Structure formats: structure tokens, C-alpha cells
Automatic annotation (TrEMBL):
It comes from Malurus cyaneus samueli. GO terms for molecular function: Hsp90 protein binding; protein-folding chaperone binding. The lineage of its organism: Eukaryota, Metazoa, Chordata, Craniata, Vertebrata. This is Prostaglandin E synthase 3 like. One of its GO terms (biological process) is chaperone-mediated protein complex assembly. Residues 1-87 form the CS domain.
Amino acid sequence: MAATLWYDRPRYVYLEFCVEDSTDVKVTIEDQRLVFSCKNADGVEFYNEINLYARVNSKDSREKRSDRSITCFMRKWKEKVAWPRITKENIKPAWLSVDFDNWRDWEDDEEVERAMVEQYAEVSWATGLRTMQHIMWVLGKGGHQALGDPAVGFPSRCWRR
């Protein structure tokens, strides 16, 4: 199972599967279930299946792969209803954690959420180029270890794990 972080927003629930250099990524989002599988660079296979706390709109849910993780954002069927947990069962699997860096009270926070969804949905060549330029700059400074510092600009919480 892949280490997984989750957090709640008014319209979406977010899951981040922490797998670096993933390949063969498969994400199936159903109304009450999510199935995730992939391989990492070493060929290790990961499989997570989650029966969701409540219903989601599978047609308006997406995933985005990066070098460090795969993030799923699932549109809630009932918006503005807080989820106390991500799983239907009232248990906490060892591989699942709350993403406290992104968790917050979200009343009247719809604009922030909309911007987050748009950010995840946008995949542009310019963004990739800027990231590569930044990495080359850090490496050129002899600070390759600085790439692990979140202040350098990698937003994924998975990077620090």
C-alpha cells in the first residue's frame, strides 16, 4: 500500500498517494470507492482500495501525477458537508494520514478551493520549464541536498517523507 495523505474542502476531498517516479498509474474513482495502483522506479507495485466515507461525483473527479505523488481530487456529492474521515469504516489504516499542512476550517473558503482545483488541472510546459530551471540552479549551487527543503518550492508533503 502506498502512504496516503488526505484532506477535506467544501466541494472536494483530496487524496495524495506518495509514490516517487510512478509508472503504470491506474486510478478508478467510483461513487463510493477509489482504487489506486502503480509501480515505483524500482518496480515495486502499490495497490490501495478505499471505500469512501460518503458519495462522490465520479464524473467530476480527477487525478494528477507528479514526480513525487499522485493527487486525486474527488467532487463531493453533498457539498459543504465536512467529512470526519475518508473511509466508510471507522478505522484508520496505518498507511493513511490526515494532511495537516492542508487541513483547515473551510467555511466561506470556496474561492481558495476553486483556485486549487484550477492549479491542479493546469499542466503547462512553462511550469515544467521553470521547475527544471530551478532544479538546475540549485544543483549548480552545489546544494542538491536543498531539493529536500520544502522552502525550495516543492509543495508536495510526500517529498518530506
